[in-house]
Design brief:
79 residues, alpha+beta, 2 domains, two-stranded antiparallel ribbon, 3 helices, rod-shaped, binds zinc ion
Length: 79
C-alpha cells in the first residue's frame, strides 16, 4: 500500500513537470514567427515588368504601364 502511494506521488510530480515544460514551450513559440511577419510589412516587394527581378517598392520605378527596376527597362517597355 505504501509503494502505491509513492508511485502515485511520482506520477503526479512527473505530470506537473511535463505540463510546466509544455506551458513554457507554448509561451516561447509565438515569439519565433513574429520577426519575419514584421519584415514583410516594412518592405513591400514588387517585380520588374521587364526582367521580373524583385526589389523594394521604394526603389522601384513606376511607369505608365507598370513597375520597373531601372530607367532602361522603363524605356524598353515604353512606359
Ligand atoms: Zn528590370
Amino acid at each position: 500500500m505504501k509503494y502505491l502511494l509513492v508511485m502515485g506521488l511520482v506520477l503526479v510530480v512527473f505530470w506537473v513537470w511535463r505540463n510546466k515544460r509544455e506551458a513554457e514551450r507554448d509561451a516561447a513559440a509565438p515569439r519565433a514567427p513574429a520577426p519575419p511577419q514584421r519584415e514583410t510589412a516594412v518592405t513591400e516587394m514588387v517585380a520588374c515588368d521587364v526582367c521580373g527581378v524583385h526589389l523594394p517598392k521604394s526603389e522601384a520605378l513606376i511607369g505608365g504601364r507598370g513597375i520597373y527596376c531601372s530607367d532602361a527597362h522603363r524605356r524598353q517597355a515604353g512606359g
